[in-house]
Request: fold
Amino acid sequence: MPLIADGGMGAMNGIACHIQEESNRGHREDTIKMGAFLCDQDIVASRTTKALRIVDLLERRGVNFRRDAKGIVMGHYASGHSKPRLCNAGDATTREIQQVLEEQCMKYGVTRRSDQVPLELIHTDSSINGLIAIDMLNGRIQSIQCKALIVADGGFEGAFTNGSTSLGMDAAYRAGAPLRNMEFVAETPLGVVGTNLVIPQAILSDGATLHTPSGTALETSSTTPTSEICAKMHEAGTTVLDARNMGKHADWWAVLFDNIKQRTGIDMNRQTVGVAPVPSQTLGGLPTDEHGRVVLQSWARWFTGLYSAGSAASSGLHGADVLQGNRLLDSIAGGEAAGAHAAEWIIKRKFTGATKLEETFSLAEAELSMLGGESEESVQRLNPVITRLKEILTAVQTPATIATDYENAVESLEQLSVQSEQLYCDQTSLIANQNLLEILRTQAAIRMAQAHVQSASLRTESRGLHQRSDFSETDQEQLHHNLIFHDGTHSTLALRKGPSGNWILPPSAAV
Reply:
């Protein structure tokens, strides 16, 4: 069974594909360079090879990609790419792809259940038995037995903005699965100031430009890496986006312009809009192999029956920074790989762990039956905890960060974790209990933040999105993945070379 959720798809800009090139060589090399050589190179080769087939499949199923004069799907220049590779449909990219994929689910009779809140992943010696979840439509706790489970929900980028995160990755983490490369957090430059709206960065490839309030243009181009654009914006302070001179390309962004006008009153056809970098994607997650299987302390051992894809997974494609368009590519290719392998793998498997599921189900029922009990003492509310979490994470999201900053963050997060366990839930019913859902998400966000800070403190170098002032140089001895476990322990995982066993691009090429 797949466990899916929205992974912050609003920041996706399209899908990267070598549609105008003879091979995927340039795409894979740009990916490895952008990832500061921390990518698993066999995964890079596989995912970039699949890009052409994925774009073709999406097009044949109905996605209206932008085309050139010959009617061929058009690639655009984008951040970090040496060639035009970004295929999109303007502001409709995410909507169209989601619609097409939902249509395929209906076509093949895939059962989908919404409003299911995962509470606990049940396993026996790191072998999946099932899941305990709340059905918020009818208010019942469910015990779901399964042979395989695919965690395909979001990352923990919400911890930096609204104080919450998706629950699938956290459930797997609490069950004993490690988290990999949690120190790397990507920003998108076009968060609309004063709102939670994010403008896709692809608009910069269509003629929109960034300026200071005085009108001075930021020195960027359509191929400037996203992290460099964000750094320039942080340095400049207040920044505005000018989309008034996009010509014929403006038609592809009409829905976005309408949304901005409805939310802010700003007409982007005639006015500039204030923007600022916001965390949009966490590159860390559950470590997966080429089949989407969640691995443990080495590539030879996996959490039996547990798979992951999308933003919850750390697939090895991105490394220390993400190439524009690779996020959507990784989500689709990773989901396909996990689904295909899981479907084949479960054929000879039997259901297990019925007794353990029953026991955990009873415990969950007993615990949740105490919701909303009266208290004569003052209670801990949600908003102060969320505000404090954002303050702690903001303090370590700067290149000036040093070891003592991480130490202070560890201590603060430990205190916040204790507070979060005392959060008060006003509602007693489980039906549409949004208060309980936000409490669970906030508790998960704090655990993800603790893993993030621990992983960042372990990487005593500056690489890609992870920058430190006390270790400002790249250290080739740290060319490995960091693994963080829920019990506080940590280890490393070796990089994977190319399909032939050799480097596609040797790390020495970075020097």
Notes: The radius of gyration is 23 Å.
